[in-house]
Predict the structure.
Amino acid sequence: MLAVIELGGNQFIVQKGDIIEVKKQDIEVGKILSVEALLVSDIEGKDTKVGTPLVEGSKVECKVLDQKKGEKVRVFKMKSKKRFKRNKGFRPSITQLEIMSIS
């Protein structure tokens, strides 16, 4: 089974056993997160259910594996001929999830 879920403002195509990284979710490590799917399909794409906006009765269960920081993102600004340069960076907080089941 395939499912399209939305977490943190982004959409992900997931299967059972996949590990995904999403924007920080306020859930403890080891807990189960339950999400409704936007689209549910089989592997071949023959039996597809599309929600408006969610598929009723669908359920994707995710286990929280880790809360960590992502790779550094550089933000560089420059204005030509004005001697203005600014270099900043940050590391976004990330939640790592494992897909347990799709129904």
